[in-house]
Specification:
GO terms for molecular function: peptidoglycan L,D-transpeptidase activity; transferase activity. With about 350 residues, the protein is mostly beta strands. It folds into 3 domains: about 10-105, no CATH class; about 120-190, SH3 Domains (SH3 type barrels, Roll); about 190-345, L,D-transpeptidase catalytic domain-like, CATH 2.40.440. The chain contains 2 helices and 25 strands. It is globular and about 55 Å long.
Length: about 350
């Protein structure tokens, strides 16, 4: 076992004790967890476990949001769906890959010296429950649940409700702070912001997004340097003419704002895990003024079909690469970098 990597059993015990003492529901897991294979989190209200890798086969049972599932094998099913035929063999059956997030269990050393402007950090456990302190009531209450690979701005270290060090997180959208166990976050070192291919002239870099193929390609002077499947915006059958469209707009754009962490959603302070609050969306590169961006995704893996409310969803490692490769260049410690940047062509 690597240093600072906790066992699945220890993590479940830690979460179970912590949530139990704070009157939360227990951490729900597959009965075979720890029996080998990779671990995935259910990233939607529920998923069905089928007898075969085929959604026409009998449903054996359900798994629910934030339960952890042991995956033994990845299967390419001849029954599709064609855009994403990846299924996972789990205990007694198969689950389609669309709404499962691959996760890890890693704890981290607590860093006490946090600069005044804050440090970016990423969650390195399946999820962690944040809390805020209500001084007028002298009590702690739960707020958002933060998920693996999401990123957040750490602005300090304080004693949490369990007496251990918790990082203070600042929410850039709602301008308030809350706390999470410090060992559940990894402070991202400055070198992970280092620009990729800085020797290439900015105007030679182009991002091409094909809605028809659900694919993104990055070019340097006409040469392909990265290709990824994506999920663009879904269509509305009867859109409200006063609302923001959910389809990804087509045309030529330029990245104008980059934020390594962004709170997206309805902008509510809530502990409801079913609320539309995507806290800590990682490595966000905005290219349309209405809020359309290329960004990392921790709530689905359904690449190849529209899934978003207008943005271009990509795997988080791809979003991070694009964030570092494009302009304007975002330095460590910068919460938002604005500027006239890389060309994005959507068609």
């Amino acid at each position: 076992m690597k240093k600072n990597e906790v066992s699945r059993r220890d993590f479940l015990k830690l979460i179970g004790l912590g949530l139990g003492s704070l009157a939360f529901r227990p951490f729900l897991v597959d009965s075979s967890l720890g029996a080998g294979g990779d671990i995935f989190r259910v990233a939607t209200y529920s998923v069905s476990v089928y007898k075969e890798p085929n959604d026409k086969s009998p449903i054996l049972y359900q798994r629910y949001r934030d339960e952890l599932i042991n995956v033994y094998e990845e299967v390419i099913s001849p029954y599709g769906p064609g855009y994403n035929p990846i299924w996972y063999r789990v205990w007694r059956g198969y689950v389609h890959s669309a709404r499962l997030q691959k996760v890890k269990f890693q704890t981290n050393p607590v860093i006490q010296d946090i600069p005044k402007g804050g440090r970016l950090a990423e969650v390195t456990v399946p999820f962690t429950q944040s809390m805020r302190y209500l001084p007028w009531q002298k009590k702690w209450e739960p707020v958002y649940r933060l998920y693996f690979e999401s990123t957040h701005w750490v602005t300090g270290v304080e004693q949490g409700p369990d007496g251990r060090p918790w990082y203070r997180i600042h929410d850039e959208l709602l301008e308030f702070h809350y706390f999470v166990p410090a060992e559940h976050l990894r402070l991202i070192p400055d070198e992970e912001f280092t620009p990729i291919s800085p020797q290439v002239k900015a105007w030679e870099k182009t991002i091409d997004v094909s809605i028809a193929r659900q694919e993104l390609i990055c070019y340097e002077g006409g040469k392909e340097v990265l290709r990824s499947r994506v999920s663009t915006g879904v269509s509305r059958w009867n859109p409200d003419p006063t609302s923001i469209p959910t389809e990804t707009p087509t045309g030529e754009f330029h990245i104008f704002s980059k934020m390594p962490s962004k709170h997206m959603g309805n902008g509510q302070v809530t502990a409801d895990i079913e609320a539309y609050e995507l806290v800590g969306v990682p490595w966000t590169s905005f290219f349309v003024e209405t809020g359309v961006a290329i960004h990392g995704t921790f709530w689905h893996r359904n690449w190849g079909t529209p899934m978003s409310r207008g943005c271009v969803n990509v795997p988080t490692d791809i979003a991070k690469w694009i964030f570092r490769w494009t302009t304007p260049i975002c330095e460590p410690g910068v919460w938002e970098q604005k500027g006239y940047g890389t060309l994005v062509v959507v068609h």
